[in-house]
Amino acid sequence: MITKEEAVAFEKQLQDINKDPNYNDYPERGPNDLESRIEDLLRINVEHHNLNAELRKEINFLQGKIDHYQIMTDQLKKENRDLRDMGKDFIEEHRNKGNI
After folding, report:
1. How far apart are CA 64 and CA 56, in angstroms?
2. CA geometry: angle at 68 spanning 63 and 82, to 5°?
3. Are 83 and 77 in contact (CB under 8 A)?
4. What per-residue confidence (pLDDT) applies to 24?
5. Spatial contact of 100 and 91, defined as CB atoms under 8 Å apart
6. What is the pLDDT of residues 66-100, one digit of tens each?
7. Alpha-carbon distance 1 to 3, whole Å?
């Protein structure tokens, strides 16, 4: 339910819209309008296909980079683990000898 003030404001908005001379004023349309619209839509469709192809290329490139960085990350994790184990072994060895 709207209040009386809201109804009055709405009526005022409708009157302002109807005062606008360009409101609902379309030029006459002919039979060539649909043909030109079809051409525009076909042109847009081709642009979208081209953009889609570029995006697919970029996705494939980035997927290759992801695979490369995943391999590097796994290798670095393994090397880090090995170095940590070497440090632990070194400390254990010297503890057992009584140096530390």
Report:
1. 12
2. 145
3. no
4. 58
5. yes
6. 999 999 999 999 999 999 999 898 888 888 777 66
7. 7
Q: What is the pLDDT of residues 49-66, one digit of tens each?
A: 999 999 999 999 999 999
Helix segments in the chain, DSSP class H? 4-19, 32-97
- Residue 30 per-residue DSSP state: -
Residue 62 CA from chain centroid, whole number:
14
Residue with tokens 């670095």: 76
Alpha carbon 19 to chain centroid, angstroms: 42
| Largest separation between any pair of C-alpha atoms in the chain | 101
Q: Which residue has the tokens 């996705």?
A: 59
> pLDDT category, 47, cuts 50, 70, 90?
very high
Instruction: Output the pLDDT for position 12.
Output: 84
